[in-house]
Design a protein that fits this description.
Tumour Suppressor Smad4, Rossmann fold, alpha+beta, 2 domains, single chain, four-stranded parallel β-sheet
Length: 298
């Protein structure tokens, strides 16, 4: 049976960049005489529905997401625990999943990897009933993700390929009003009562927010999350430490602790926002667990 690649294109990803990239990829596929089908997402969660329909068909060499981390997350939520490999053509604002897997940001090089590379198996995270690939963020992070996704400036900054700056603008806006919360954190049945928590980042990959190395040592194939806890610092100290996170140099701060674990429960007196891969996926209380070797990626 000949190879057949299935592409899922998020037309609005990267403020329309995914659609422009797809037109170039399609020409390459035709020039290379590669068999393919293409589907365009029309609404939120549409990619998940498309994958669920595709994965039961007989001839699926790979399913390729053309978009950003949000598109990848939707595809994964349909693809999880199958042997069908995921390919990625990065076309979003953050592209942290691609960054963590060393997928080239140039579309022609990313396509070459999909057509000629060997699949590898990675772990995936599960927040309540939603899968995520890179990082789930609780508290300050969740509010920043919500503000970024609702902002006008994200679209404009995506257009000029400065998507990371939209995260920084949102973080500074949220910082003005944010109040740290007391939380209960259970990691592999060990209970931590932590006061004045700014954020908890549960990481399967090192990066989020367009390249912020929140958990620089996180690995996607070790069966464990790296969990970054930021607590007890003043707003001034937060402003001092925040820029260090872009290079992963924040972890030496006495207000930051990184622990590892497989199963996590987070509770708080009032609900805290949660994002996964930059997409809003709920509020506390929350259960998060690792799903080892759950996804094949090109």
């Amino acid at each position: 049976m000949s190879s057949l690649y299935h592409f899922i294109v998020n037309k609005v990803s990267g403020n329309g960049r995914a659609l422009k990239i797809w037109s170039k990829i399609e020409k390459s596929l035709q020039n290379k005489d590669v068999s393919y089908r293409v589907f365009f997402t029309e609404k939120p969660k549409h990619a998940t529905l498309l994958v669920r329909e595709l994965k039961v068909q007989e001839n699926v060499t790979a399913i390729v997401a053309v978009g950003g981390d949000g598109t990848v997350q939707e595809v994964i939520n349909g693809l999880i625990n199958t042997n069908i490999p995921l390919g990625i053509i990065p076309a979003g604002s953050g592209n942290d999943f691609s960054r963590g897997l060393y997928v080239p940001l140039k579309h022609d090089e990313a396509l070459e990897r999909i057509l000629n590379g060997e699949p590898k198996v990675i772990d995936i995270g599960l927040v309540n009933s939603t899968y995520f690939c890179t990082v789930a963020g609780i508290g300050f992070d969740g509010e920043v993700a919500q503000k970024t996704n609702a902002s006008i400036y994200k679209k404009w900054l995506n257009y000029v390929r400065l998507g990371q700056i939209s995260y920084i603008i949102s973080a500074l806006n949220v910082l003005l009003k944010y109040r740290p919360a007391d939380i209960s954190l259970m990691v592999d049945k060990k209970l931590y009562k932590i006061p004045k928590v700014w954020l908890i980042a549960v990481a399967n990959f090192p990066f989020y927010g367009g390249g912020i190395a929140i958990c620089p040592e996180a690995k996607n194939n070790d069966g464990l999350f790296d969990i970054c806890i930021v607590q007890g610092m003043s707003k001034l100290e937060f402003l001092r430490v925040f820029p260090l996170a872009f290079k992963g140099n924040h972890t030496t701060s006495p207000f930051i602790k990184i622990i590892r674990g497989k199963e996590i429960t987070i509770e708080s007196p009032s609900p805290l926002m949660i994002h996964g891969d930059g997409e809003m996926i709920g509020q506390t209380p929350v259960q998060i667990k690792i799903e080892p070797n759950a996804l094949h990626v090109m």
